[in-house]
Amino acid sequence: MNSIVVSSLVPVVVLIAAGYLAGKRRWIGGGAVKDLSHLIFLLLAPALLFRAMSTVHVEQLSLKPVAAYFIASGLLFSGTLALRGFNRTAAVIALANTYSNTVMIGIALIGLAYGEEGMVVLLTLISLHSLVLLTSATVVLELAVAREQAGASGTEKRPSMARTVIRALRNAIIHPVPLPIIAGLLFAQTGLAMPEAIDKPIQLLGQAFGPIALVMVGITLALTPIGRHWRGALTQALVKNLLHPLLVAIIGWLLGVRGIPLTVMVVAAALPIGANVFLFSQRYRTAEDLVTASVVVSTVLALATLTLVMMCVQWLP
Question: Which of 63, 95, 102, 108 has its CA nearest to residue 279?
Fold first, then answer.
């Protein structure tokens, strides 16, 4: 079990380390990080998300285990906002507490540990993971931005809540993360097949997302002083790697989810923080240093916490 976890996590750690080396040696300067972020967020991520959703048929999805995952994530997300207040920083931290690295690490790990049956369950989650969590986070972030802008305007008359919500929903949908997910899901329902001449470039762009995003985490890590953030990063990592799967296990048990579906959902929740959270912190310019440190600490810590969780889930009936 431990060897499976290590073999899945080591490539992620190596990519972050490669980015760290590139940043330390100044092969890539600080001015290029913003451009690299735009490349990832506006081109590579949409290609990955659209293609992942373009073959998903709603009627084939088993949603009960996934519901347990999202209910637990929603409780943790809401609890974070309640503790930290309604603002951009709290929203990004809440996303870090709930967004797992299901693709880069999860697919290899679940496939090796739980075989085809486990993969079916995980892919059901992956098909909705970004759609639900990233779209929800985008709505909250856009609402927080609108609220901050209204407060900074200095005018007594603020826009109505309905108008703010409508604007936030519009910005959330016309957005480089939710829009390709929705477009891919709609395309899948048509039953059409993507021409290979179009599908192959989209596939290649999507495959570039994971490595480049993780390298960028390492570059930013090297270029920003994060030593003072290690305690906060450790707290974030423990919440994501241990509290999140514990909540999923409890909610799943209460909903009657058992066996491999429950096991896969718990292990998926125990995966470290996904790189998309870092991209959100970059895009909304908040908690960038803390999120950078948290992604790295969560990934390194997962070598131990994933092993612990995967051992514990064996005791579930």
Answer: 95
Torsion of CA 211, 58, 269, 183, to 10 degrees: 40
pLDDT reading at 156 higher than 50: no
Nearest Cα neighbor of 220 from 296, 292, 300 is 292
Exposure string over 151-172, b if 16+ CB within 10 A, otherwise e: eeeeeeeeeeeeebeeebeebb
Task: Read off the pLDDT of residues 130-149 as tens digits, 9 standing for 90 and up.
Answer: 778 888 888 888 888 887 87
Collapsing DSSP states into helix, strand and coil, what is residue 36?
helix
Structure tokens at 208: 């570039």
Q: What sign results for the dihedral spanned by CA atoms 112, 206, 262, 187? A: negative
Instruction: Quick: pLDDT tens for 234-256.
Output: 999 999 999 999 999 999 999 99
Q: What is the CATH number of the domain that holds 300?
A: 1.20.1530.20
Q: What is the pLDDT of residues 120-132, one digit of tens each?
A: 888 788 878 877 8
Q: For tokens 């990063």, what's the residue?
A: 233
The answer to whether the CB of 277 falls within 8 A of the CB of 291 is yes
Domain residues for the domain of 293 are 2-315
Q: Domain tally for the chain?
A: 1
Output the pTM of the full model. 0.76
Question: What DSSP character marks residue 159?
Answer: P
DSSP single-letter state for residue 38: H
